[in-house]
Amino acid sequence: MLFKVNIANEPIQTYKPQNNPGQYSSYNRPKPLMSDKFELNSSNSTVTNKIQPKNIDKVINDLKKLKSNIQGNIIVVSGPSGVGKDTVIDAFIKKNPDVNTVISNTTRKPRPGEKDGVNFHFIDKESFEKLIKEDELFQYMKFNDNYYGTTKKELNKKRQGHDVVINVTADEALKIKEKYKDKAVLVFIAPPSLKELEQRLRDRGTEKEEEIQKRLQAGREQLAISDQFDYKIINKTNKIDEAALELTKHASNEKDIYLKSLEKLIALLEKTATKSNTLRKIA
Length: 283
Hints:
Layout: E1 2-6, E2 13-15, E3 37-42, E4 45-47, H1 56-68, E5 74-78, H2 85-95, E6 100-101, E7 105-106, E8 121-122, H3 125-133, E9 137-143, E10 146-151, H4 152-159, E11 164-167, H5 170-180, E12 184-190, H6 194-204, H7 209-224, E13 231-234, H8 240-254, H9 257-282
Parallel strand pairs: 5-11, 5-12, 6-11, 7-8, 12-13
Antiparallel strand pairs: 1-2, 1-3, 3-4, 7-10, 9-10
């Protein structure tokens, strides 16, 4: 199958999907293209921007297959404990349902309101150490005698045709950036002040004083390296939507150009298909 994109008066340029899902990266793709016109040549059909209604579903399916072969960005969110990272990410996902969340594993006990498979995969220490031994983890860390980490399988599955968002510590985020380069977008969520951060930790009511002090110290250490991140967002009190909108803006600006183009094209064709089906029913 061969996809061709035409930019205004420029010559048609070609983008050919292969079998390896991970082969497209910012280093080996052809020059990014944006277009209002689209042409698809497959084994026995040619579809232009004047697509016949009977062909729309096939074109949409072909485009979705192509989209699934592109690995999205890893939006890496970090920040001190208690700053509101999970709440910001939840609000961000509601505004961007096409972005996948990557659920990490942890050996700590669930906090009130947390659900297994939603906030974390809660597993025992023996199971986690087995993942480490078998090199199944994309990243992991240990804090307060509890492990936290994400499997490679989870990450790769969620990245097929989608950007993903992941919540890790600042030092782990920098390691991810070193490995994934431009495919990793680092966003640091910061509190308005350390005093406000301490108050949020105390209001949470889930840690003893010793643990609060450990988390505050870890927070200071993360803030010290936050200038190495691509973006920094101040999560103001009761302003979650503002932080989520800012995260949305940064994620959109960094989004893979082909992935963004395909998403727009698929949405346009699905809208066209819906209208065509409605008209046929009326007729």
